[in-house]
Amino acid sequence: MAGRPVDHQRRDELLDAVVDYTVEHGLSELSWRPVAAGVGVSPTTLVHHFGTKEKMLQIVLERLRQRMFAATRDAAGAHPDLATAARAVWVRTSDPRRQAEFRLFFAVYGRALQAPQQFADFLDHVVTDWMTSLREAQVPDTDPETATRTATLVIATIRGLLLDLLATGDRDRVDGAAESFLSTLEHRP
């Protein structure tokens, strides 16, 4: 006898609720009972929709990544230049309302470096999504090697600034440094 089929609309609703729960509570609370209680379902319902805890984690991280990338892309507009794209990334990631989201991001990043097999999908996308977007935002005749180097510098700088902001809470200092960096992108040939 086959189990009941997964209702994909319900699964998507549950996934969004689990992502929100994970952002609020962090990875340490990502186990069946606390998550189920937090989103108002039974642990059996979560198992039915997500299979294993590991699979649920992978799906949660994928949805979170998609949300973060889409929101930043939407804020930057259809075909932004490099300075506009980088500024949109900084504005969204440094927004105090996104603090829990990016604390989770760095927590996952740290875990992924410790257990790369478990977090292979996360590691495959953590740089490549932004790399592609930031390379495309550069002047069309930029040679690919230079575009990749520049995109790498933008990603590393913004992530470093964000990590500093999350660790210290010194918004004025870090925003000032971010503005200094972002202004250099506005004057690129």
TrEMBL record:
Location of the HTH tetR-type domain: 8-68
Keyword Nucleotide-binding applies: no
DNA-binding region: 31-50
Gene3D superfamilies in alphabetical order: Tetracycline Repressor, domain 2
Stored InterPro entries: Homeodomain-like_sf, HTH-type_TetR-like_transc_reg, HTH_TetR
Entries under Pfam families matching the protein: TetR_N
Keyword terms of this UniProt record: DNA-binding, Transcription, Transcription regulation
GO molecular function: DNA-binding transcription factor activity; transcription cis-regulatory region binding
Signal peptide start and end residues: none
PANTHER family: HTH-TYPE TRANSCRIPTIONAL REGULATOR BETI, HTH-TYPE TRANSCRIPTIONAL REGULATOR RUTR
Official protein name in the record: TetR family transcriptional regulator
Protein species of origin: Nocardia bhagyanarayanae
